[in-house]
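Reader question, answered in our methods column.
A reader sent in the components of a multi-part assembly and asked whether the whole thing could be modeled at once rather than chain by chain. We filled in our standard form and ran it. Here is what they sent:
COMPLEX SIZE: four components
ENTRIES:
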Amino acid sequence: MDDNTPRAVTMRDVAQAAGVSVSTVSHVVNNKQGARIGKDAWERVQRAIQELGYRPNAMAKDLVKGRSRFIGLVADAIASTPFAGQIIRGAQDEAWRHGHVLLVANTEGNDAAETEAIAMMLEHKVRGVLYSTWYHRQVELPVGLTETDCVLVNCFAAGGGLPAVVPDEVAGGRQATRMLLAEGHRRIGFINTTTPSPAQDGRLEGYRGALAEAGVPFDPDLVIDAQPDQEGGYEAVGHLLAQDATGVFCHNDRVAMGVYDAVRERGLRVPEDLAVVGFDNQEVIAAHLRPPLSTVALPHYELGQAGVRVLLGLDQPADGGRVVVPCPPVHRSSVSTVAPD
Amino acid sequence: MDDNTPRAVTMRDVAQAAGVSVSTVSHVVNNKQGARIGKDAWERVQRAIQELGYRPNAMAKDLVKGRSRFIGLVADAIASTPFAGQIIRGAQDEAWRHGHVLLVANTEGNDAAETEAIAMMLEHKVRGVLYSTWYHRQVELPVGLTETDCVLVNCFAAGGGLPAVVPDEVAGGRQATRMLLAEGHRRIGFINTTTPSPAQDGRLEGYRGALAEAGVPFDPDLVIDAQPDQEGGYEAVGHLLAQDATGVFCHNDRVAMGVYDAVRERGLRVPEDLAVVGFDNQEVIAAHLRPPLSTVALPHYELGQAGVRVLLGLDQPADGGRVVVPCPPVHRSSVSTVAPD
DNA sequence: TTGAAAGCGCTAACAA
DNA sequence: TTGTTAGCGCTTTCAA
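And here is the structure of the entire assembly that came back:
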């Protein structure tokens, strides 16, 4: 664009215009406690700032203070899902609240991009970096990350060591199952994923826990592993119906979407013939299925938030270095016909 | 976290360790052309850099060079949709390619947040800012934005003046309609949105254009305005079927999703009984509906990319200050049963 | 209540 | 081929 950069107005310009020294300007700009500035000088400075349209130079400020107010956030999938977006939003809101700004880098899982992103952050002397993934999993730590404070968000590292903020899969699975139990269901199917992951283990554990809690015996025939998407859900329904399931807990909302299709195709209805609850609370899907899907939310926003809190030392991870964030149930209309189950 | 910041290693430390001056170090670090450094000194510097784990300080560098390598991106909805995510990704990739880094701020449409975000960017002396919205519309320019170079992404301002990068709604509408025309359809419904917007006008214009092009008379009864979501699509189907429509172009993918539901409920099938094409190419929906939805893609990634290109002066907007980005058709299986229409 | 001056980590003349 | 030096815009003692 236009390159006639008219040299930004600096503190010196303001000082000159106000007829004071730069240190005086500095004091009023930062509203310094210690130094008491005369009302008169103060006003002249303010006026000069207005008139010249002065903006402090954050880089110069950070340079002298020896630390920046940046927090790096490297994400593996800003694009593919709305999930990363929520993490970013949570992180940003919280960072902002504490006077920090987010430097985000999307790596799409690409190692080179990751290394470059981290180098960039290190060179900007970030306060620390949040390393996040769009689905909960174990990660290999990129080198370079050891050079600064780092907290893992929605993932965790092999050796432990690094603080990690993750969703509570177990409690989430329990919540989902309880929603069905509460409506009187006893034959509750669980379409789990075929992908080994904390979600696979945790949600199953939660499912079993809720069943046990309600005195319902666990029946392995009611648990079926399927591809974690529409196809998987669609195909699992036959089996579950043959097992006399009256309700089903789906590994995620997309699976639930497939279940809806299969149910409809059989001339049956949700929730009358089969009650269903999902997982993730993926807005575009869950809220707009017919009927709207009851589900359990993956707390991405809160994950991002918690990430910066522990990075900034505002929250302490418990022993084990894990901060576990709850997955709240979201009641809509796929479990019971009476408005929000 | 740990606060025993061991004072970062600086260029001076490296110089000392290598037994040379800082300027020598500067030269090798930046691989300066002009200055010829002795092989010996060069190696000693490299070694010192390795051993000390030196990282240049980007802030100091930018400070002396008088300009940062930041590009600001303010978005109104990182969260609600995957759309903003794509814009960010496109912008970031392109910025990165030219040695710039993105400073992103999510404002959720909140004015105060917007002002604060822009102030922050200005203080970081960004090279310029990209102001983007998640759906194509006219915007009021926040004050402050005039203090720096700015390009609008997926939106445009009242007065003109600012360069804007927007999707080609008209060509997109034409593409969508052509997909149906190509399969021999002549009675083609169009479920448009009730919301006044460039999308509403543009897509209709494209629809009419394609019809004219194919010699099919325009029938107002085939165009119906509906709420741009599942509900709207669901409810519009009855009318369209009564008009003997054999194909329908939906204002967006969510509307198409509602159309699917209504069609299924009548015991009919897509595409045999009603061919449908959407708009947006919202991955979670379009790719996973049954059958997968043929649609026209909103080029968010390219919008972000183009945004930084014009900001950096790499691309020149045509007269009128608009850069119009094409919306490519995405062929799946909702228009024709023979694999990808 | 205000100002002078040193210095944050780096680049870029200019000297040597 | 390498070093010296003067800033970049700001904060912060320390003096006045």
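What stands out: Residues 20-24, 27, 35-38, 41, 60, 62-66 of chain B lie near DNA strand D (CB under 10 Å from a C1'). The radius of gyration of chain B is 26 Å.
Send us your own complexes using the same form.
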